[in-house]
Structure formats: structure tokens, C-alpha cells
Amino acid sequence: MNPSHEARATSTVSFAVNGELRNVRVHPMERLLDVLRNELGLTGAKEGCGEGECGSCSVLMDGLLVNSCLVPVAQADGSNVVTIEGIAARSLLHPLQQAFLESGGAQCGICTPGMILAAVHLLEKKPQPTPAEIREGLAGNLCRCTGYTQIFEAVAKAVQPRVAR
Ligand code: FES
Ligand code: FES
Q1: What digits encode the pLDDT tens for the residues 37-61?
Q2: Domains of the chain listed by start with CATH number
Q3: Ligand 1, residues 56, 71, 115, 142: which to mutate, most atoms within 8 A of Cβ?
Q4: Were 57 and a residue from 68, 75, 129, 145 both cysteine, which residue would form a disulfide, CB within 3.0 to 4.6 Å?
Q5: Angle at which helices 149-164 and 112-125 pack, to 10 degrees?
């Protein structure tokens, strides 16, 4: 096959995004981040570094936290992807979103979707994390604005209602 022709070859990739089956016709090596943002209009995942270092592009794929800037979309075929757009229950913010809002955990907002999804992932594994476990759980996500204190407070705050029950 002519190499330039091969470079443009596309195929259909099918995966669930926030509970809805989506079929996209794209080059299989296109980044999941770009497919989410450009093909599916889900712009919550942000591009920070584009190199797997900052976590701002984080999404959940089959329950695992992944940097979508590093995932060729072909790898997502048949998977279940959750983005920040998928965690709220209709018009109600997810408790972590509400806690970030109340604690000032979001400033410029670039890191926020990834931070919240990292926290969702953490709380699924450890519903009652210690402060050290919260820091560790978010260690792959960088923030240039907040100094992290409000972010850690927000996650702790989202945990508190469960403690009170
Ligand atoms: Fe993906 Fe930074 S943009 S890890
Ligand atoms: Fe700006 Fe975290 S709020 S990078």
C-alpha cells in the first residue's frame, strides 16, 4: 500500500462513553484525548503536557485512570470510558465536583477534570482515604494554581458525609 495512503487509513472504533455507545471513524493511532474532544465534543479532558506527565487529560477506561493523551483510540475499542462529563447525576453535581466548588479546589480549571476523576478513582478503591492516601492518589495530577491544599481539602470534604452516616 502506498505509505501516504496508509497514513490516512481510518477504521471504526466503538466504545462506550459515559454509558452511551459511540462509533467513530478515525485513524486508530489518533489519541483518545483528541477523539473525545474533537469527534465527540467532550472537552472536559484537557491537554496540559501532552506527554503523560500532568494528568489533566485523565479519564477512566474500564475503571482505570488513564492519561488519554497517551492512549491510541484503537486501545479504547470495546471499552467503557468515563469522562468528567459523565460523573454528575443529571443536574446534580457529583459530591467531588461540589466539594471542589466549595473549597476553591478549581482555579484556572485545567487540572480540575483530571483531579476529580483521579479522586473518583481513589474513592472507588478506598472510600475512606487518609490524608496521605489522598495525596498519594492524586500524585499523578499536577496543578499550577492552587498549591494543592484546597484540592486535598475538597477530596476530604467529599469523604466526610460518608463518615457522618
Ligand atoms: Fe496528558 Fe498531560 S496532557 S498527561
Ligand atoms: Fe489551574 Fe490546577 S487549577 S492548574
Answers
A1: 999 999 999 999 999 999 999 999 9
A2: 3-86 (3.10.20.30), 95-159 (1.10.150.120)
A3: 56
A4: 68
A5: 40
